[in-house]
Amino acid sequence: MPGAMLYGLDSQEDSIRKTLQFMWDSGKKDTRIKLGIQPTILIYGPPGTGKTSLVENLAKEFNSEYNAEGFHFVKSNLNSLLSHDLGRSSKNLDKFFDDIFKKARQQKRVLVHLDDAESALTSRMGGSESKGVFRFVTTALGKLDDLIGADLMYSPVIVLSTNMIKVLDPAVDRRFTHRFRFDPTLSEEHIREMSTHYLADSIDEYSDFVEALISRYDPKQVTPHQICRILEVVLVQGLAPDDAILQLDKENPHYGMIIEK
Q1: Which domain holds residue 64?
Q2: What CA–CA distance (Å, rounded) separates 33 from 162?
Q3: Are strands 40-44 and 71-77 parallel, antiparallel or unpaired?
Q4: What is the pTM of this model?
Q5: 3-state secondary structure (DSSP) of residue 98
Q6: Any domain includes 4
Q7: Beta carbons within 8 Å of 234's beta carbon, 6+ residues apart
Q8: Nearest by Cα to 110 from 67, 157, 153
Q9: What's the pLDDT tens digit per position in 5-43?
Q10: 3-state secondary structure 14-39
Q11: How many other C-beta atoms can be found within 10 angstroms of the C-beta atom of residue 146?
């Protein structure tokens, strides 16, 4: 199955792919241990810039590459493991990390994506967090250290993604040294590719709309998600190009501000 279409992220995708390959290269295991290279990746940037899609695309790619040898992809929002019942939160964490250990001990390459990290791994320094959140973060960090330090053929690689890097607990921040910022700048060619992807056989009748969109967007502010939303409205609602943009402006004035140069 092909992955999601990504735009303006070629450099990040290539670098993250190489980082994963290094971590799972058995010939580099001794070097990684000797130098204390942690199998952790932090990706951050505004919403709608492709963080989740890129990780999922790479997971599909590595599943095809390592399927015969063994590959396992785990995706979770840690907030779903957090409970008002402190004991339940601990049990949820135990089960989550035990399952990862189980796969890794089977000599499988394991990719773990912890999405929306800010929802559960916020700073414990502010003093406003509940005891439950404080304990959850502390326990999660301990489990993470155990996983990173385990003597395994292929160390699981933990990818943490967040829209708000500044709110992460400092102890979380320190454990993720391989960092990639997602803030893609779209080009005119990207807009044309996205338009063709969405409008397909109807692209010719929307050629004026595509050119109008290209002439109006600010590449320093717009995200792929926002452009895709415009195209989706045109496709699904069958709106004329100008009506589609006006409708988006009505739903959220921010879109109008972004689209206009």
Answers
A1: 10-181
A2: 27
A3: unpaired
A4: 0.79
A5: helix
A6: no
A7: 198, 199, 206, 209, 241, 244
A8: 157
A9: 788 888 999 999 999 999 999 899 999 989 989 999 999
A10: HHHHHHHHHHCCHHHHHHHHHHCCCC
A11: 11
